[in-house]
């Protein structure tokens, strides 16, 4: 055990030192925190193996030996925060505070965003900025004054001649981060794993002009010894900072109990996606500053505050191999096969590598430790590989010269990064087309998942899209298949039959015309009475349709000139699929009761899908809006309504109605 604890401690120290000297992480924060928690647990269980300078007791950097900057001692240590991850942790924190302060009846809490950057302390004297210091090891930091002077949003002179020390976070705005990584990739430089690493790398540059160039920014959330400025609460101190010209996030909500805190944390958990800086959680602070002293600190963190961490978006794992996938358009894309990890609540085994150029530029190899992340995309992406953890056994990834499915030589269109399989009857491509055809946004054939498509193809029951409608010929053979059975075959065949009544726009979408998704398919259906009309349109005519650009128009035109596609459409017509746009019945004006009124809905509705309610509103002459604003007349509220409802309540001019009330107004319910 002693050996294990020692190794764990050394491993953590290596990661930590590397981060503080190179501004780059070797593993994700999540893994680091997990290892640290394990060490803490072991040190508790085996106190005899505890060491004085263990990472479990020290804040931040453990070795400042190699710093290029002047070392400065903090007047007051820069503490860290203890972390929490669940609603229960928050309630526990609140209960703990209450227990320590039995006398206090009206405890309130300030809730703030937890910025994911690097902490900074700034000293002002008589309103003049005199020094800026990083956290360092919490006791001694690095003097980065010269660099900080280049951050435009940090005032060099305050609006009043006060002397004080403030603490905050240096961040690189997301827009700037993306710009920077794009440039680095183009120049063949290593990309930064995340905005925090980029901010750290930028702040600790010796050439201060780079700071301005990259657009580094800072937000402040703490006034040291606020009680000396006649301030009673933390929230007042934040207002005070803002009045002096210091940038704050503007988010410091005063709340009363754990349920209010939890509900606002949920709100910000969604809202944070729209901010231009990275947040990794929220911070809860007892608002009354007087109580801070009573609550005191542990070695690492104050007892009057706690951080709530949002689920990590980034984790590190290993690439075990690469497979090349053939999509429905023939595009061949690399997918990383990973050592399984958990990421934002799901198990992840594969991640996108985009294209070969990206693999080459980022020098990603099989066997590499990699950062993977789930951002706005649902599919995880490989962000970068960690070169420092290579042991020499990594394998360089090669771009295929032949299709991995049908072995046809691949092609690359001029100026394009992607390679394609040119074979129209490539099984990989057909499988992709079939999966897309039956998918939700297209024909939405329930129970026809990608596994079944794969099986049907393999067994030769279907060879192309039209064959789906002839699958009933194989009923008996299907029933004999493992895991199928009579009932599920019945269901599948019924779902296939029912799909024949899917509206024209869905069928158009399902055809898989390049660049045409469900929204553009709807535009096309609305502007052409039937498919014959659509097929006869010229590129110019197609471009006249609102929302259809030149690239898409050309793709649609070419698609309908392809003999194979013409055959497909004929085949589907013969099976009775819908290729005609249904006429919408237009109501007489006197029945359009919503003329001049605007609507928006929020939450889950019971009686309508999103599209249905929008159509109902339009049918009655109303207009759908996408955001809450003064222009909105009605907000229809379903279950689990979120931020839109709150905003509408704040505006006070909006009529807030339930789904039921809405149905009564349109005469759908008495
Ligand atoms: S208060 C003694 N407030 O998170 C309390 N910290 O994990 C000092 N951070 O060291 C910290 N946003 O670098 C505080 N609104 C916020 C914060 C915040 C980000 C950082 C800070 C701190 C770390 C703790």
Assembly category: single chain
Note poorly predicted spans. none
Helix run count:
24
Determine the CATH topology of the largest domain.
D-amino Acid Aminotransferase, Chain A, domain 1
What number of domains? Answer: 5
What is the CATH C-level name of the largest domain? Alpha Beta
**What is the gyration radius calculated from CA atoms?**
30 Å
Would you report the number of β strands? Answer: 23
Binned, the helix content reads: 25-40%
CATH superfamily of the largest domain: DNA ligase/mRNA capping enzyme
Ligand catalogue: 2-(butylsulfanyl)adenosine
Query: Strand percentage, roughly?
Result: 15-25%
Instruction: Give the averaged pLDDT, no decimals.
Output: 91
Cα distance spanning the termini = 73 Å
What structural category do the secondary elements indicate? Answer: alpha+beta
The CATH architecture designation of the largest domain is: 2-Layer Sandwich
What is the global morphology? globular
| Main sheet overview | 6 strands, antiparallel
GO cellular component, one term: cytosol
InterPro entries: BRCT_dom (IPR001357), BRCT_dom_sf (IPR036420), DisA/LigA_HHH (IPR041663), DNA_ligase (IPR001679), DNA_ligase_AS (IPR018239), DNAligase_adenylation (IPR013839), DNAligase_N (IPR013840), Hlx-hairpin-Hlx_DNA-bd_motif (IPR003583)
Catalytic activity: NAD(+) + (deoxyribonucleotide)n-3'-hydroxyl + 5'-phospho-(deoxyribonucleotide)m = (deoxyribonucleotide)n+m + AMP + beta-nicotinamide D-nucleotide
Enzyme class: ligase
């Amino acid at each position: 055990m002693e050996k294990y604890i020692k190794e764990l401690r050394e491993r953590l120290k290596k990661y930590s030192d590397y981060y503080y000297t190179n501004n780059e992480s070797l593993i994700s924060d999540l893994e680091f925190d997990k290892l640290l928690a394990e060490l803490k647990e072991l040190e508790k269980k085996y106190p005899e193996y505890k060491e004085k300078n263990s990472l479990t007791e020290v804040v931040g950097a453990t070795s400042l030996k190699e710093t290029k900057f002047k070392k400065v001692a903090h007047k007051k240590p820069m503490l860290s925060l203890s972390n929490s991850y669940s609603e229960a942790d928050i309630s526990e924190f609140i209960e703990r505070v209450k227990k320590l302060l039995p006398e206090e009846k009206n405890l309130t809490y300030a809730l703030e965003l937890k910025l994911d950057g690097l902490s900074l302390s700034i000293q002002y004297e008589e309103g003049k900025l005199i020094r800026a210091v990083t956290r360092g090891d919490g006791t001694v930091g690095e003097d980065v004054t010269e660099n900080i002077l280049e951050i435009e949003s940090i005032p060099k002179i305050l609006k009043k001649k006060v002397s004080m020390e403030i603490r905050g976070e240096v961040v690189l705005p997301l827009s700037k981060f993306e710009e920077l990584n794009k440039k680095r990739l183009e120049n063949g430089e290593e990309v930064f794993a995340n905005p925090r690493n980029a901010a750290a790398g930028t702040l600790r540059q010796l050439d201060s002009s780079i700071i301005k160039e990259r657009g580094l920014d800072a937000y402040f959330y703490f006034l040291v010894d606020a009680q000396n400025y006649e301030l009673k609460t933390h929230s007042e101190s934040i207002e005070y900072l803002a009045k002096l010209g210091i940038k704050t996030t503007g988010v410091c909500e005063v709340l009363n109990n754990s349920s209010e805190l939890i509900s606002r944390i949920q709100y910000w958990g969604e809202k944070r996606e729209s901010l231009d800086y990275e947040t990794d959680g929220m911070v809860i602070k007892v608002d009354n500053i007087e109580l801070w002293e009573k609550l005191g600190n542990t070695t690492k963190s104050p007892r009057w505050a706690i951080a709530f961490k949002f689920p990590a978006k980034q984790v590190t794992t290993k690439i075990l191999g690469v497979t090349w996938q053939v999509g429905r358009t023939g595009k061949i894309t690399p997918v990383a096969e990973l050592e399984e990890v958990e990421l934002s609540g799901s198990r992840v085994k594969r991640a996108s590598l985009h294209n070969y150029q990206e693999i080459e530029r980022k020098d990603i190899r099989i066997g590499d430790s990699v950062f993977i992340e789930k951002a706005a995309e649902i599919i995880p992406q490989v962000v970068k590989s960690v070169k420092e953890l290579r042991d020499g056994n990594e394998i360089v990834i090669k771009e295929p010269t032949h299709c991995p499915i049908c072995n046809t030589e691949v092609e690359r269109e001029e100026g394009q990064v992607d390679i394609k399989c040119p074979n129209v009857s490539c099984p990989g491509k057909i499988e992709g087309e079939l999966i897309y055809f039956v998918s939700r946004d297209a024909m939405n054939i329930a129970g026809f998942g990608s596994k079944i498509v794969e099986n049907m193809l393999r067994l030769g029951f279907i060879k192309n899209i039209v064959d789906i409608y002839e699958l009933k010929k194989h009923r008996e053979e299907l029933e004999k298949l493992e895991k199928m059975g009579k009932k599920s075959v019945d269901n599948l065949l019924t779902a296939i039959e029912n799909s024949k009544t899917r509206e024209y726009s869905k069928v158009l979408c399902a055809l898989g015309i390049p660049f045409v998704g469900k929204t553009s398919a709807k535009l096309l259906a609305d502007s052409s009475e039937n498919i014959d009309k659509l097929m006869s349109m010229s590129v110019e005519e197609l471009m006249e349709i609102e929302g259809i650009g030149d690239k898409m128009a050309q793709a649609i035109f070419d698609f309908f000139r392809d003999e194979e596609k013409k055959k497909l459409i004929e085949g589907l017509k013969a099976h009775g699929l819908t290729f005609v746009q249904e006429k919408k019945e237009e109501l007489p004006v006197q029945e359009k009761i919503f003329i001049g009124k605007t609507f928006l809905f929020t939450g889950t509705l019971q009686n309508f899908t999103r599209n249905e309610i929008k159509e109902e509103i339009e049918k009655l002459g109303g207009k759908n809006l996408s955001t809450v604003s003064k222009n909105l007349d009605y907000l229809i509220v379903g279950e689990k309504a979120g931020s839109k409802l709150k905003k509408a309540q704040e505006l006070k001019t909006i009529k807030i109605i339930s789904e039921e009330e809405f149905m009564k107004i349109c005469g759908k319910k008495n």
